[in-house]
Amino acid sequence: MIRVMSIFGTRPEAIKMAPLVKTLAGREGIESLCCVTAQHRQMLDSVLEIFQLTPDFDLNIMEPRQTLSTITTKCLLGLEGVFAQARPDLVLVHGDTSTTFSAALAALYGPIAVGHVEAGLRTYDKYSPFPEEMNRTLVGDLADLHFCPTESNRENLRREGITRGVFLTGNTVIDAMSTTVRPDFRFSTKLLNELDYTGRTVILVTCHRRENYGEPMAHIMKALRRLAETYPQVELVYPVHLSPVVREAAGKYLSGHDRIHLIDPVDVEEMHNLIARCRFVMTDSGGLQEEAPALGKPVLVMRRETERPEAVAAGTAQLAGTEEERVFSLAAQLIEDKDAYDRMARAVNPYGDGRACERIADAIEYHFGLRSAPPAEFRP
Ligand code: UD1
Ligand code: UDP
User: Fold this and answer.
1) Using one digit for the tens of pLDDT, what is the confidence trace for 233-249?
2) What is the mean pLDDT of residues 252-268?
3) DSSP assignments along 243-255, one per residue
4) To 10 degrees, the CA torsion angle through 299, 377, 31, 50?
5) What are phi and psi for residue 37, nearest 5 degrees?
6) Mean pLDDT for all residues in the chain
7) Cα separation, 40 vs 211, whole angstroms
8) Which of 30, 59, 207, 367 could form an S-S bond across to 78 if both were Cys, CB 3.0 to 4.6 Å?
9) What residue owns the CA closest to ligand 1's atom 36?
């Protein structure tokens, strides 16, 4: 048996790794173990509950207002003990968080082979997104297996000289969506059942990135408030990340308006169904940039750059930046100009076909000699 340990710590990693942990558990030649660092606590537990996943190890590291150094050192020390006990043959990490980087580094020290899920995303700007760009770049060097969602991700790795152990799989987030989105879904958050999604302009908002802390976030939030004040048909729904920095900014700029709904984070089923029902999405999130296009919803990306150019190329996402005027005017255009809206509101799936987990499991089996051929590549 090949012992594969999936390690993750935050909400988006959990959403994208949960279906993979389950797929691996269904393979005869693989023993699938799951270790959470709990870099996030409540937001992670909510995902574990929805996907009915019980971790074998839980480092429980989260602290309020944690720093990058605390996360990294606590993960490194905690994982040393976990590896000594479980002795995995392969460690799987996901994406670009501090958990991702620390777990890959801990595995190097093991030494244990590393597989990187969601490999090859780049902006080539060291500080944007921060610290994610360097996390994923460094993990690219540490990893033995690289599971790229798209061809352009694979091309990024090729440019860096990484050509061995690279598989084109699609993104596992699309696999996750196959179980969450339902036309008859009932929200447990009361407001979300009461909103008039067809009569009103419901805009879904999220904003949490570290490089947006401070002035960019203030600009974004002023633009959001102006949208609600300018357009009486607009209802802004903003599930606010639990980071105290983000909650303070949202409270300061957006509270006290009857059509700006600041709510707690919603679980992933609610989120996916909310995307499916809203008019469009304004976000700095990575995951939402993948999910909204799959559900035919325009996305305004409130960042200076994106490592996910595919949806921009397909015309369903626009890079809005973080300047108040531009964020406001791009959203205003989607509200006022039906043709502009219709051009963006086309369901495209550049990120996956729902079979990424199967391909990753096949690739792992191939790497360990349990299968004679690599999986067929993902084609959008
Ligand atoms: C982290 C990732 C980021 C990812 C994001 C997803 C890093 C450096 N950043 O950023 O790449 O996009 O997760 O959401 O890895 N908190 C809670 N409860 C929770 C989660 C967070 O209270 O369940 C609060 C804590 O005070 C914590 C703070 O939020 O200290 C920040 O969490 P942290 O994981 O450090 O950063 P994120 O901004 O969430
Ligand atoms: N998400 C969620 N509830 C929320 C906000 C986001 O379930 O209240 C989901 C979202 O659908 C996506 C993931 O969390 O799958 C994205 O997480 P986040 O934006 O925190 O991180 P990023 O993707 O930017 O790293």
Assistant:
1) 999 999 999 999 999 99
2) 98
3) -HHHHHHHHHHHT
4) 20
5) -85, -20
6) 97
7) 19
8) 59
9) 243
- CA–CA distance from 246 to each of 44, 238, 243, 253, 349 (Å)? 18, 12, 5, 11, 30
Pocket of ligand 1 (CB under 6 A): 10-12, 39-43, 63-66, 68, 71, 96-98, 131-132, 208, 210, 242-244
96 is catalytic: yes
Name the residue at shortest CA distance from atom 15 of ligand 1: 97
**Phi, psi at 230, each rounded to 5°:** -85, -35
Please report the beta strands in the chain, taking only residues with DSSP state E, as ranges in sequence order: 2-8, 30-36, 57-58, 90-94, 113-117, 145-148, 166-168, 201-206, 234-239, 260-263, 280-283, 299-301, 317-319
The string of pLDDT tens digits covering residues 35-76 is: 999 999 999 999 999 999 999 999 999 999 999 999 999 999
> Is 208 a residue of the active site?
yes
On the question of a cis peptide bond just before residue 64, with omega within 30 degrees of 0, the verdict is no
Cα distances (angstroms) measured from residue 273 to each of 102, 170, 176, 182: 33, 22, 13, 7
Q: Give which of 267, 268, 265 is closest to 250, Cα–Cα.
A: 265
- As given in the structure block, the two tokens for residue 268 are 């992933």
Distance CA 282, CA 285 (A): 9
Point out which residues pair with 154 in neighbouring strands. none
Q: Is the peptide bond before 111 cis (omega within 30 degrees of 0)?
A: yes
User: What's the CA gap between 192 and 370, in Å, rounded?
Assistant: 47
Q: Residue 222 burial by CB count (10 A; 0-12/13-18/19+): exposed, middle or buried? A: middle
Probe residue for ligand 1, chosen from 65, 94, 242 as the CB with the greatest number of ligand atoms within 8 Å: 242
170: left (phi over 0), alpha (psi -120 to 50) or beta: left
Alpha-carbon distance of 293 to 277, in angstroms, equals 13
Overall pTM > 0.90: yes
Is there a catalytic annotation at residue 304?
Answer: no
Q: What's the CA-to-centroid distance between 345 and ligand 2, angstroms?
A: 21
- Beta bridge partners, 8, equal 36
